[in-house]
Design brief:
This protein has 14 helices and nine strands. The chain has helices at about 1-15, 25-30, 70-85, 95-115, 125-130, 155-165, 200-215, 230-250, 265-270, 275-285, 295-305, 310-320, 320-335, 345-360, and strands at about 20-25, 40-45, 45-55, 55-65, 135-145, 170-175, 175-185, 220-225, 260. It is globular and about 65 Å long.
Length: about 350
């Protein structure tokens, strides 16, 4: 119960609202969707988050239903998933020495982060198990597979070693969350031709890994990747940073599966802003928010900004004539007073598009 009190305190500090834990009769929980008993739902005017089944009851955490935005609900789900993993009564069977060692590191990481410690060095007794003294490329993988499609440590490690063509370190952090530490040498193995930056190579690595996992693993997944680091010094900070990138990417860049901290700086700045302030900003800047319900207009604005406000590149990307693109941009200017061909207005619209994704109601 001590751990739950800590999680509750963190949630209430972050979201500014009260959370309660209680038991709901299983019959009542299953009343609306019997085949989907594990999902969270609204009961008696409160939003209930599933924890686990307790005999004829469901252990759940609840909050006033109107209080949370979709992105805040996602944050709660992620924190409760970590809690559920720690609370499991049964220990996952370990089938190899590598898996046993990885579970020791997993336990150490969970204990440190639970106490709010992000700068502790990995103990030598753990670092020596995998020779974690040289820089490694950290990748965080979150599998969007169902609870019925369990991914085993041995199968995933074998698949990853084939992909990386060498040994890697695999640490199962949560049920569907895996930390991979790959060799830094991958950044020196770029192809011939024009020189790539480290960011380009890491993005390419993430894309290739995602494509392989979707095809060869258990389905869709998300990947967060960061610069190489010495695990003995920076493992905790890296896990925290990758989890933050994963949350920001899945919240603000819903069409992406590869999430990198350096591409999410603006999202990180905007995320702590309150819901009311976000809504007020949208109303002041856009005036006509109904325009963003037009998928064609939304896509046009996103692509135009993503391609550095280049008319030619955007027209090619959207497979439309240049004049068609200019017509859409002029229409948006007439309706909102914002000309995205100017830097100042492009920045305002870019921020508005990001905030719209987390404030709209579907």
């Amino acid at each position: 119960m001590v751990q739950w009190d800590r999680i509750k305190q963190q949630l209430e500090q972050i979201l500014g609202t009260e959370f309660r834990r209680g038991r709901v009769p299983a019959a009542k929980w299953n009343l609306s969707v019997e085949s989907d008993a594990g999902k969270s739902r609204i009961l008696d005017g409160r939003y209930h988050f599933f924890l686990y089944k307790d005999g004829g009851h469901i252990q759940a955490v609840s909050v006033d239903e109107p209080m949370l935005t979709p992105s805040e609900k996602q944050l709660v789900e992620l924190m409760l998933e970590a809690y559920r993993t720690q609370e499991k009564r049964s220990v996952t069977p370990v089938h190899s020495e590598d898996e046993r060692k990885s579970h020791l590191i997993r336990t150490w990481i969970a204990q440190q982060l639970e106490q709010g410690i992000f700068d502790a060095e990995l103990p030598d007794t753990l670092a020596a198990n995998f020779a974690l003294y040289t820089p490694k490329i950290p990748l965080l993988v979150y599998g969007d597979y169902s609870d019925q499609r369990k991914a085993t440590y041995q199968d995933l490690k074998k698949l990853l070693e084939s992909f990386f063509d060498g040994e890697i370190v695999l640490i199962p952090l949560l049920d569907k969350e895996w930390l991979i530490l790959g060799p830094e040498s991958l950044l020196q193995e770029g192809g011939e031709g024009e020189e790539e930056t480290a960011e380009d190579m890491l993005a390419s690595l993430g894309d290739a890994l995602h494509e392989m996992l979707v095809t060869e693993w258990v389905g869709e997944c998300h990947i967060a990747v960061d610069y190489p680091l010495p695990p003995t010094k920076s493992l905790l900070a890296s896990v925290s940073k990758l989890r933050e990138a994963m949350t920001l990417g899945r919240t603000y860049r819903v069409a992406d599966n590869i999430h990198m901290p350096w591409r999410l700086q603006l999202e990180k700045l905007l995320h702590p802003i309150g819901e009311e302030q976000k809504q007020l900003f949208l109303e002041r800047v856009l005036k006509r928010m109904d325009l963003l319900k037009d998928v064609e207009m939304m896509t046009t604005l996103e692509q135009f900004i993503a391609l550095d406000c280049s008319v030619s590149d955007t027209a090619k990307k959207l497979f439309i004539h240049r004049n068609t693109l200019l017509y859409r941009l002029d229409k948006f200017k007439q309706e909102t007073g914002l000309d995205v061909r100017t830097f100042r207005h492009a920045v305002l619209v870019h921020v508005a598009l990001l905030l719209y994704k987390v404030t709209k109601r579907t």
